[in-house]
Amino acid sequence: MAFNNTDISAFKNVWVFCEQRQGVMMPTTFELISEGRKLADELGVELYGILLGDNVDGIAKQLGGYGADKVLVYNSPLLKEYTTDAYTKVISDAVEEFKPDIFLFGASNIGRDLAPRCAARLHTGLCADCTHLDVDLDGYIEYLRTGSSLDVEGMNFDSKLFDVKTNLKMTRPAFGGHLMATIVCPRFRPAMATVRPGVMKRRDFDAAKAESVEILHPEFKLDASDIKTEILEIVKASKKLVDLIGAEVIVSVGRGISKDVEKGIKLAEELAEVLGGVVGSSRACVDAGWITADHQVGQTGKTVHPKIYVALGISGAIQHKAGMQDSELIIAVNKNADAPIFEVADYGICGDLFKVTPLLIEAFKAEKAKKA
Length: 372
Description:
By secondary structure, the chain is of the alpha/beta class. Helices cover 31% and strands 21% of the residues. The strands form 4 sheets. The chain has a 7-stranded parallel β-sheet, with helices on both faces. Helix 3 (84-98) crosses helix 4 and helix 7 (261-275) runs parallel beside helix 10.
């Protein structure tokens, strides 16, 4: 029977592509499983993880600990290293067999390569680089009420084209982060999305659920003739990149360092070192060439949730705030008392960062010395 992706009623459940490399699950997978659990609960369906590799059964149970009900495991020597052809065939065949309603991928290098290829083969839509997902309409309206400047009370959410209450609402930055667009895929299934790493909050690990998750091994067909490329060698380049997503403390710099960029960055590095953190930045600093893109926080950079976020000379444009406003503690230093960053700051210091930051460094050093 031919695959009919327009028969919406035939599709059910939420799937997450579970990315692993050399037998180690990528952190983004746990974030997506956690988010997938929320969506599955909103729809009243099951959450599946789909895991490809060679002898990867040993890591499958981890997915249950973060919310998966079942895990589809596909083992083959041909899946040991990622190739677009092999992974696309296995996943597309699995979708045609089991018909998931929603399918999530991490917006990693692999996810950004694999998801569009699968979507094209399955003739369905894909929303890339999402920062928010909802099925429940009330939850989506609350997201708009708190995360946008729209007059939600005056909006009409009824639609004659599709069911607003059951379709996945996928929100992503548009026009360089100046707008947020919400996209639905009403006519085809599965509704597919790639999700930016660090955006979704990981659930607490539940050991009991990890043990009770159901591991399935569906039959599948894959041979060497399905793969048009051959991996001759894997060479890992050593490039030091800042780990913003995994950092517990981030000290970010903004346009306020413009009068002495080198000194401003040095002060941020010193403060970050004292606090045991890393240096981040606003988009303005990256665009100006003062700091590399891997330091960028915001809608067009990385979304972070550190325990402490220090903003030095950052005005707090909505694009930047969207990437850091869920930090546990926010400290802002800005000489403009009306800077928007103070709206989300737990502690705000109105002053010149070049004068305030050295005082903060000394104060934190003194406090650490007391506890030593």
